[in-house]
Design brief:
Elements: E1 3-7, H1 12-21, E2 26-31, E3 42-45, H2 53-60, E4 64-67, H3 74-79, H4 81-102, E5 105-111, H5 136-151, E6 156-160, E7 162-163, H6 173-182, E8 187-190, E9 194-195, E10 198-199, H7 200-212, E11 217-221, E12 227-228, H8 229-240, E13 247-250, E14 264-265, H9 270-276, H10 283-295, H11 298-311
Parallel strand pairs: 1-2, 1-4, 2-3, 4-5, 5-6, 6-11, 7-10, 8-13, 9-14
Antiparallel strand pairs: 9-12
The structure holds NADP nicotinamide-adenine-dinucleotide phosphate.
NADP nicotinamide-adenine-dinucleotide phosphate binds near residues 48, 87 and 160.
Length: about 300
């Protein structure tokens, strides 16, 4: 069984990846400040910025690295631009270089936010369209992509946008809608912000396929279609049996957000479809997969990894 090192294993994406990959891979997850227990995979606790990347790889000896750790909170990056640059840009380049030296497959998670969202058209942004980051977060993530590919041309840079259940229950947009609607609260959904988001379980399945194909370079890993965040909220309400009228359509300009967001992030996935040789899931299929995992208790499972830690 191949060994995979997943950084950011306490975060929304990394924890879900570790959970879906265990059994298929020998999973080692890197956690930093978050306390988790009862996990079905191995963990290493370290602050990546104060631990040598070479030592980490010598300790774990992975076949594959899935680098999810980041400062992913947009407003936090605005407040701490130097820290954001260290973890989002400089460190990924260092880890990718160490991976190249050891011939370890390196997958770097990036974001659709590298684009400004002003001119993608109906066909969406392609991998070779010029990025134009409009926040510190996006700027540092774009630098991270460049540093990774400069030091490791065989690396895979996956630009993504995703949702799923998180340990704290608040990290993901789907949880925002689920939490409020299940409590009977009305919520705002941006009707002028479009995205091609994907459920993390599909994302894990597709990245696994890409590892098998030894894909490298930049890829857009997104749903086959796009919708507004308002439409997404309505679809969540309908799927879970909540009243869709509780989702109000508003403009992002009235949302009171601190850092600027890219409004129109429709992503072109032709390059990915060509290498995979099949179609990508639609947003409807993503939500169905998410709902099926919910019905089998995934939400409680993910949140239980934290609850168990508190009970100890
Ligand atoms: N969330 C989104 O909507 C979104 C969209 C597109 C792309 N992305 C990208 O997807 C990736 C994962 O995002 P996410 O939302 O899952 O993030 P998240 O929930 O905020 O988790 C961040 C993870 O990074 C770890 N981390 C941060 N600094 C670290 C350090 N110095 N040393 C070790 N670990 C450190 C955290 O560990 P502790 O919590 O244990 O400290 C945590 O596990 C990021 O690359 C992000 O840019 C996210």
């Amino acid at each position: 069984m191949k060994r995979i090192l997943v950084t950011g294993a306490s975060g929304l994406l990394g924890l879900n990846f570790c959970y879906f990959f265990h059994g298929k891979y020998d999973v080692f997850g890197v956690v930093n400040t978050t306390n988790l227990s009862g996990l079905p995979f191995k963990t290493i606790r370290c602050n990546l910025l104060s631990h040598s990347a070479a030592d980490l790889l010598d300790e774990v000896k992975p076949d594959v690295i899935l680098h999810c750790a980041a400062m992913a909170n947009i407003d936090q990056c605005e407040k701490n631009p130097n820290d954001a640059k260290e973890i989002n840009a400089v460190y990924p380049g260092l880890l990718a270089a160490q991976a190249a030296r050891r011939k370890i497959k390196f997958i770097h998670i990036s974001t659709d936010a590298v684009f400004d969202g002003e001119n993608c058209g109906d066909k969406g942004y392609r991998e070779d369209d010029p990025p134009n980051p409009i926040s510190r977060y996006a700027e540092t993530k774009l630098q991270g992509e460049q540093f990774v590919l400069d030091s490791n041309p065989n690396a895979l840079v996956a630009r993504v946008n995703f949702y799923g259940w998180s340990t704290g229950g608040k990290r993901s947009l789907v949880e925002f809608f689920y939490n409020n609607l299940s409590a009977g609260n009305s919520v705002n959904g941006f009707s002028d912000v479009y995205f091609s988001t994907m459920y993390v379980h599909f994302l894990a399945d597709i990245l696994d396929e890409m590892i098998g194909l030894d894909a490298h370079g930049i890829y857009h890993v997104f749903s086959a279609d796009y919708q507004s965040k308002y439409a997404f909220g309505v679809s969540v309400a309908e799927k879970f049996g909540f009243d869709p009228n509780f989702v109000r359509a508003v403009s992002w300009k009235d949302g009171g957000l601190t850092a600027k967001r890219s409004p129109n992030l429709i992503m072109n996935t032709e390059k990915l479809r060509n290498i995979l040789g099949h179609e990508l899931p639609t947003q409807k299929e993503s939500l169905e997969y998410f709902y099926q995992d919910y019905q089998t208790g995934l939400r409680e499972k993910i949140q239980g990894f934290v609850k168990q830690a508190k009970e100890e």
